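Reading is simple: each integer encodes one residue's backbone shape. The lines below illustrate:
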Amino acid sequence: MKFTVDSAVLTDSVNWVSRSLSTRPIMTALLGIVIEAGSDITLSASDLETSAKSSFSADIKEKGRVLVPGRLLAEISRALPNKPVSFNLDGSRVLVTAGAAKFTLPTLPINEYPNLPVMPDTSGSIASDLFATAVNQVAVAAGRDDSLPTLTGIHVDINKEVITFAATDRYRLAVREINWSPNNPEETTTALLRARTLADAAKTISSSKNISFSVAPNTSNERLIGFTTEQKSMTSRQLDGAFPPYRHLLPSESIATAVIEVAALLDSVRRVALVTDKTVPLRLKFSDNSLHLEAGAGDEATATEELQISYTGEAIDIAFNPTFLADGLNALGTTYVNIAFTGSNKPAVLSGKNKVDGEIDSSYRYLLMPMRYAS
């Protein structure tokens, strides 16, 4: 095997597939990235749950296939100078050269490398930037506790031409609806996929125009979801278990509504929360077109701040986890936030608005549970 490739192209491809490398492999081969030189160069990696491939054009002198340590290749590719990179298989070692930089990589037994799963048939296509935005908006609410695996996932609900993404860690719920182009206009199915996997995919493929989205039928033994662009692909096995029902949690009515500039509210939340631990409640009092924020109590440090806002409805005295509140505000992507309340001890729903008196963008909703605070 012998080829030469642009360093930026190599780094992009290695970064993509290295996301699927196993951190606790059940076999040594899963520590590696497969480099295959054929008509193009194809890199692939897998942890048996998620598998990724990336292809690119190169000046190929000799064809071949080899398995090299993945994390080492990733570190080397990121550190190489901006010059053409040459790969040359010499016996059981791979010589990597870029300008004056030279590396020699050991190889791993490629005959022990497992066959990667076959990509399911394409279900439809989505604009990449829309997909990436939707995934990032809901991933912030996904759980981090692996002992509750269903809450570490993003629930994908396909209903004809609408896909709904949802995630929750029990303290907040994020829901985003987007339109897509299904191959079957009557397509309806659901899937539960690791939030980390979807978020990683969204980070890298947003630079392409469209992605093909593939969902294996629920009757399939593989239970795979796949994403494909012109040069990159990823498959991931779905999580076991049922995602909790969530639609009934989103209230259809409210007793009060606040419209606030996102940037101003974020600044205030961050300042006032400085005096407390990130898990200590941030108290917010809404009334008469004003918002009073306060944190801390007793002999400890305290902070307060006032904001002029647009407010309608009865007075609300409520407390939130400041980190969770900031996450929701950051995820909106709009100039203003519309906060709908159903009570001081009930969840509030954040949605976006581009103008104070504009329409509410209900395609994204971020439900936040209140916290108890010391009076």
User: Anything to note?
Assistant: The radius of gyration is 25 Å. The chain has a mean pLDDT of 92. The first helix runs from residue 7 to 18. The chain has three domains: 2-112, 124-247, 250-368.
